[in-house]
Amino acid sequence: MLLFRLCSPLTVEQLRQMRRKSGRSDKKGEVEMLLAEDGSSFIATIQATPEGPQASFLIKCESGGTTLTETDIQLFQNMDAAMKWLDSAAAKRGFVNFPIHHT
């Protein structure tokens, strides 16, 4: 498995505090979106199904013995739409390059 990873010395609590200050967390201090700048990794998968390509992503941010994750999955009518969705999800979170696994 190929992973692109950016390193960050932030602990999960530091990440939550930073997000609260910047307005990127909910009222409970939970992180709404994991970003590349936080040291997260973005992994995409596209699976062929009879209904069309199913695209998904997994974002992981490991810090201080804790792992935060964010995932999403959607079914598309064609491969182009699936790729555009993955590109958009990655770009929104600051990822430029990311692996795509085809199954």
Helix content: 10-25%
Order of helices and strands: HEEEHE
Q: Could you give the order of strands across the largest sheet?
A: 3-2-1-4
- The CATH architecture name reads 2-Layer Sandwich
Please explain how this structure is put together.
There is one protein chain. The chain has 103 residues and is α+β, with helices and mostly antiparallel strands. The chain has a single domain (1-11, 39-103), classed as Double Stranded RNA Binding Domain. Helix content is 24%, strand content 33%. The protein has helices spanning 12-22, 79-92, and strands at residues 41-49, 52-63, 66-75, 100-102. A four-stranded mixed beta sheet has the order 3-2-1-4, covered by helices on one side. Strand 1 and strand 2 form a beta hairpin. The two termini are 13 Å apart.
Keywords:
single chain; 4 strands; Double Stranded RNA Binding Domain; alpha+beta; 2 helices; 103 residues
In short:
By secondary structure, this protein is α+β, with helices and mostly antiparallel strands. It is 24% helix and 33% strand.
Task: Detail the topology: elements first, then pairings.
Blueprint: H1 12-22, E1 41-49, E2 52-63, E3 66-75, H2 79-92, E4 100-102
Parallel strand pairs: 1-4
Antiparallel strand pairs: 1-2, 2-3
